[in-house]
Design a protein that fits this description.
Order of helices and strands: HHHHHHHHHHH
Oligomer: single chain
Number of helices: 11
Helix content: over 70%
């Protein structure tokens, strides 16, 4: 296991090491305060750890994403199962998806005030659309043969939804959830930058006010690392849950 992890780091991490070294050399030669070298950024992260602000930010991201996922999947299944509902609601859904979530932050600030409620409202509104629309498309794409076979064997109602519809739509549902997770991280930062007393966004605002570009870069790099970790964990879960789907697809080919 250790040898495999080391081999993975060598295969995938060499480019990152080269880029960091190039950044270090370029920053030291430039001597620009707004473009600090990675060594100075690392010291700033150690002296004023943004990790302390990571917990509330992660809580907002995961809670908002989970709420949007639950609402999006439930609504998407209901809309996808009804042809009439899909055609009636599709223009409304497309309009809602087209509204940029950051433009609603002032409204959410008025309605919910500054704090967690406003941040969660921003995240949920922004990330529910890919989950909802992907779920509806996945449900509508279930092959009629599967539904007819379930009907012949007397599988109906909740059982058909659980054993036929949801498994068939699962790849698209997971695709929507993955896109939504990336959006949730972005919207969390935007909401915290607009008004928050804690979290990474508040730490970035403080670094800007104090003219500490090293701390600003530390927060930015920390956000990038968090995004990579969340995406990797989600892919691991997706591959585990959808292992049967890949196996079935290989069998058909």
């Amino acid at each position: 296991m250790a040898a495999r992890a080391l081999r993975f780091l060598l295969q995938r991490g060499w480019l990152l090491a080269v880029l960091v070294a190039a950044w270090e050399v370029a920053a030291r030669r430039a001597g620009d305060l707004s473009f600090p070298p990675p060594s100075r950024v690392a010291r700033a992260l150690a002296d004023d750890p943004a990790l302390d602000a990571l917990a509330p930010s992660l809580g907002h991201v995961l809670l908002g994403w989970a709420l949007a996922g639950a609402v999006g999947i439930a609504a998407g299944v209901g809309i996808g199962l009804s042809r009439v509902a899909y055609h009636v609601l599709d223009p409304v859904l497309q309009f809602g998806r087209a509204v940029p979530p950051p433009t609603l932050i002032p409204l959410f600030m008025v309605v919910f005030g500054l704090g967690t409620s406003m941040q969660l409202a921003t995240i949920v509104f922004g990330v529910v659309w890919p989950v909802l629309l992907n779920t509806a498309d996945g449900v509508r794409a279930v092959e009629p043969v599967q539904l007819d076979t379930a009907r012949v064997f007397g599988i109906g109602g909740a059982a058909r939804l659980r054993y036929v519809v949801l498994p068939a739509a699962a790849p698209k549902i997971f695709a929507g959830l993955r896109v939504a997770l990336g959006f949730a991280l972005i919207l969390m930062v935007i909401a915290e930058l607009m008004g928050s007393g804690d979290g990474i966004g508040a730490r970035l605002n403080a670094a800007e006010r104090e003219f500490r570009p090293d701390r600003l870069w530390a927060g930015i790099l920390l956000l990038g690392a968090v995004g990579c970790v969340l995406n990797g964990l989600f892919l691991l879960v997706e591959r585990t849950v959808l292992a049967w789907h890949r196996g079935a697809r290989r069998t058909r080919t």
